[in-house]
């Protein structure tokens, strides 16, 4: 992968993390089940940290980090809001969308980790992010099953 491709993909990861941070904030503001708060707050903090760690990697590589969310993420949050309005089980709908977002983030991380030019320390940081995202996705799936079972 060329440097410009790697820079683009790392910037995409930053956007994904900002998107997730905003998405988890949206879920936190709109869920009814108070048991979700701890997981959402943890996820928000992780994504903030992940974004800053990726920025540090980019600066180390001489790349310029972009700032802000993606159009795709903005559209996903709009869809979450739309779905929230028309869903009979708001919490389950919100969890569905959070799970979907985690799945997309996982794919973006796996794509970057294919790059053989990543320095080992940088790849380790990104692999740790990926493992946290996978754990978050599993926790969200468990919460969704519990919410769906009680609905």
From TrEMBL:
InterPro entries: CHP02284 (IPR011971), DUF2383 (IPR019052), Ferritin-like (IPR012347), Ferritin-like_SF (IPR009078). Pfam families: DUF2383. Residues 7-115 form the DUF2383 domain. This is PA2169 family four-helix-bundle protein. It comes from Cryomorpha ignava.
């Amino acid at each position: 992968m060329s440097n410009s491709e790697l820079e683009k993909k790392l910037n995409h990861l930053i956007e994904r993390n900002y998107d997730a941070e905003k998405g988890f904030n949206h879920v936190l503001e709109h869920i009814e089940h108070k048991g979700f708060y701890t997981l959402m707050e943890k996820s928000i903090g992780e994504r903030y940290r992940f974004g800053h760690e990726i920025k540090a990697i980019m600066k180390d590589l001489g790349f310029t980090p972009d700032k802000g969310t993606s159009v795709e993420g903005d559209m996903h949050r709009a869809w979450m809001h739309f779905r929230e309005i028309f869903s009979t089980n708001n919490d389950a709908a919100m969890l569905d969308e959070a799970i979907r977002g985690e799945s997309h983030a996982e794919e973006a991380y796996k794509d970057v980790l294919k790059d053989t030019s990543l320095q080992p320390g940088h790849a380790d940081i990104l692999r740790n992010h990926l493992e946290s995202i996978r754990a978050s996705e599993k926790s969200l799936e468990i919460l969704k099953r519990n919410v769906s079972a009680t609905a």
